[in-house]
Design goal:
single chain, GMP Synthetase, Chain A, domain 3, alpha/beta, Rossmann fold, 3 domains
């Protein structure tokens, strides 16, 4: 499972800056203003080669009512979810009464914690940390989140207290299974759909215990193939599904996305498409997951309501134009069979072998149809392509000035490859490499033997990656 790291502390100590640094994003708002972050913010981070979930919080300030109380509750929830807590303090202000109160809260929580002395740039590290030993939370770690100073050393130490990596896929049996995650907002019918898939259609199934935070993974077989279904809401008996309000946890959703080969995003037709639906879809695509979109509770919907939902899909989920869409009723089973067929199809697309000769031919056709832009009067040249990975398909393109290829042209090429190879439901990642032209100086258009061997070594290396 992905470990969870929570960033806590009083307002304006740099939690959001550290969150952005760890997740390599700008998702958290950053400004020199206390209390800017109020809700928990989640993102994917990486410690060395180990992926993790990072949670940014609004901070624990003074006050027991209104916004301050709500921010405190959000922080306490983040601590409950976490495997390790990073308590940030401000090296410029020294120890405050609020810092001492938060340390006491961390001790009561019993979670592994690290005391992080932020904004230590330009200060002697021993001097910056000295005052904070008095808090009794172990060694203080001076860092500068804004500049990345000292963060690598801190995270190496954090790695030692995180739970062992138990992500599936290390054994042969786990590698053979296709893992499908059902994700979505609360009460959209995730458990109903899971139980429907595991109902009359199942051959072998058994429940696997999970903690309240972990997504539950259920192995089963269908049409002679091994699957594992990940339910982020937990498995409940069919009779109780309609009565229970599904508990929503962003951590569980992120963990399920990380473990899955295919993500089924479930949307409630009667509630419409929300920003949260779009956010979950974006997270799945950022992780390179194949996807199927299922619009649930479609039965009994009036024609004008159905038209409204279709318009919302076109407006709010335009970036999912390559993803199969199914209108289903998980409760009554209508459309679920076709949904499962699409899950198998998008997984096959994500795992497809793409021959180098065909990839290069598609690249040549795409370039002939729409030339790359000029850079300082010189045309970007894209020479050949080969496959660099699967799930998602990674296509490596060699040429010159490839670092200057615009994002729009990258999307154009991804769509060209997706259309040519019928890669429905899976993102296509394009990587560019700049190097020597293997055909230079060869009137026949063929590379030398040495150049051909070098090219094949590059292709084999990328495939192993």
């Amino acid at each position: 499972m992905l470990p969870v790291i929570a960033l806590i502390g009083r307002p304006n100590v740099g939690k959001s800056t550290l969150f952005n640094y760890l997740t390599r994003s700008r998702d958290a708002l950053v400004a020199d203003y206390p209390g800017l972050t109020r809700d928990r913010q989640y993102g994917f981070g990486r410690i060395g080669t180990r992926p993790c979930v990072v949670v940014d919080t609004g901070g624990i300030g003074t006050g027991e009512e209104g916004v301050a109380a709500a921010m405190r509750r959000q922080t306490m929830l983040a601590m409950e979810e976490a495997d390790c807590v990073l308590l940030l303090v401000d090296a410029r202000t020294g120890v405050t009464a609020a810092d001492e109160e938060i340390v006491a809260t961390v001790r009561r929580g019993g979670k592994p914690a690290r005391l992080v002395v932020n904004k230590a740039e330009g200060l002697d590290e021993s001097v910056a940390a000295a005052e904070y030993f008095a808090l009794g939370l172990g060694r203080p770690w001076p860092i500068s989140a804004a500049h990345g100073q000292g963060v690598a050393r801190l995270m190496e130490d954090v790695l030692e207290v995180l739970p062992a990596d138990t992500a599936p896929g290390t054994g042969a049996e786990a590698d053979d299974r296709v893992r499908m995650a059902v994700v979505g907002r609360p009460n959209v019918g995730k458990s109903t759909l899971v139980n429907r898939i595991l109902g009359e259609e199942r051959v072998v199934t058994f429940d696997v215990a999970g903690t309240t935070r972990d997504a539950v993974e259920i192995p089963f077989e269908r049409d002679g193939r091994a699957w594992a279904l990940i339910d982020t809401a937990g498995i409940r008996r069919r009779a109780r599904v309609r009565e229970a309000i599904e508990k929503f946890s962003v951590v569980k959703t992120l963990q399920a996305i990380e473990r899955a080969h295919v993500v089924v995003l479930l949307v409630d037709a009667r509630e419409g498409v929300s920003e949260q639906d779009a956010s979950i879809a974006g997270l799945a695509l950022d992780r390179g997951r194949a996807m199927v979109l299922a619009v649930n509770k479609w039965d009994g919907l009036a024609p004008d309501q159905r038209d409204t939902v279709r318009r919302q899909l076109d407006l709010k989920l335009t970036f999912l134009d390559f993803v199969p869409v199914h209108f289903i009723s998980a409760l009554h089973g209508s459309g679920v069979g076709e949904l499962f067929d699409s899950v198998a199809a998008v997984h096959a697309a994500a795992m497809r072998e793409l021959p180098t000769a065909q990839l290069t031919r598609v690249l040549e056709d795409a370039v002939a149809g729409h030339q790359p832009p000029l850079v300082r009067g010189r045309r970007i040249k894209l020479r050949y392509a080969h496959q660099g990975g699967r799930n998602p398909p990674v296509i490596v393109i060699h040429g010159n000035q490839t670092a200057r290829v615009p994002a729009a042209y990258r999307r154009y090429l991804a769509n060209a490859f997706r259309k040519a190879f019928e890669l429905a439901g899976t993102p296509v990642q394009i990587e560019f490499r700049t190097g020597e032209n293997p055909y230079a100086g060869r009137p026949s258009g063929k590379p030398t033997r040495r150049q051909a061997r070098r090219r094949q070594r590059v292709i084999r290396h990328d495939r192993r990656k």
